[in-house]
Design brief:
273 residues; alpha/beta; Rossmann fold; 2 domains; five-stranded antiparallel beta sheet; elongated
């Protein structure tokens, strides 16, 4: 369960103070829109940790208990200097809103709109062991994932809130409908499927040029074979250069699905934009 889902499910049962970063100046630990939900005994999310967060939680619980109900500003200024024991040096303005079950739908709408604006689109082709391990990691990252497989029964019943499962057969047809600017990871159960997805991505790059990263799982030998077959399909070396294969951050060794998933997620986070 990701933080958004946990927040909304708890809010249906008990009130919370929703703390959001309203604006920032200078060096700060979190960006505008970052949030945490403070319940009576639980905190979901973070606005930066440290003494800043400790004071924000204390103020949030005062408001939740009614001590600050209707009094004071909804937006509070925090200077990240010696008084907070933090050396960032910037300023954060935090917004405090007390929410109840009746606010769940509006809160969900805000979160979805914010994610659509700030989360990067990512397509993951393949629901195998690495794909499952990777989805669990991506559930906590600022990405909107389209998870595609030709086997409809392959997806688990419970996936993170930022993941949309899509059945496509043949699987490469899903490439045409990906959101512009999508990064693509290809790791299906079949080399033939992988090859078709890579070819579809290259064709989309040729016609639309809007896939900033295309990564293919496998060995150098696999990619050498793919290069030859893609050349036979008419793709030139300059186009093939757009494919990253093998994928994963160099220096992270191990063949376990979880290790591979960490290496791939780390490489994704290094991509510009």
């Amino acid at each position: 369960m990701n933080q958004t889902t946990q927040f909304l499910q708890l809010l249906e049962l008990q009130p919370a103070t929703w703390v959001r970063v309203d604006s920032t100046q200078g060096s700060t630990p979190r960006e505008v829109g970052a949030w945490m939900a403070v319940f009576a005994k639980t905190v979901v999310g973070t606005v930066g940790g440290g003494h800043l967060e400790m004071q924000a939680i204390e103020l949030a619980r005062q408001r939740l208990a009614g001590a600050a109900s209707g009094a004071g500003d909804a937006v509070v200024r925090f200077a990240l200097g010696p008084s907070l024991g933090q050396c960032c040096g910037g300023v954060m303005h935090l917004r405090f809103d007390v929410l109840r079950a009746a606010d769940v739908q509006n809160t969900r709408d805000w979160l979805l709109a914010w994610q659509k604006q700030h989360y990067k689109p990512l397509a993951l082709f393949g629901g195998g062991h690495v794909g499952n391990a990777l989805v669990r990691i991506l559930g906590g990252l600022p990405v909107s994932v389209t998870w595609v497989d030709s086997r409809d029964e392959i997806f688990p019943a419970d996936v993170p809130g930022n993941v949309l499962c899509e059945h496509a057969d043949p699987v490469f047809r899903a490439v045409a409908d990906l959101p512009p600017g999508s990064s693509v990871l290809i790791m299906s159960f079949s080399h033939a499927e992988d090859l078709d997805v890579v070819a579809a991505c290259l064709m989309r790059l040729r016609t639309r040029g809007d896939l900033p990263y295309i990564g293919l799982i496998g060995s150098k030998t696999k990619w050498a074979t793919f290069r030859h077959r893609l050349s036979e399909r008419g793709f030139v070396p300059a186009e093939l250069h757009a494919i990253t294969s093998p994928i994963g951050l160099a220096g992270i060794d191990g063949k376990e699905p979880e290790v591979i998933a960490v290496a791939v997620a780390a490489q994704l986070l290094q991509q510009p934009g």
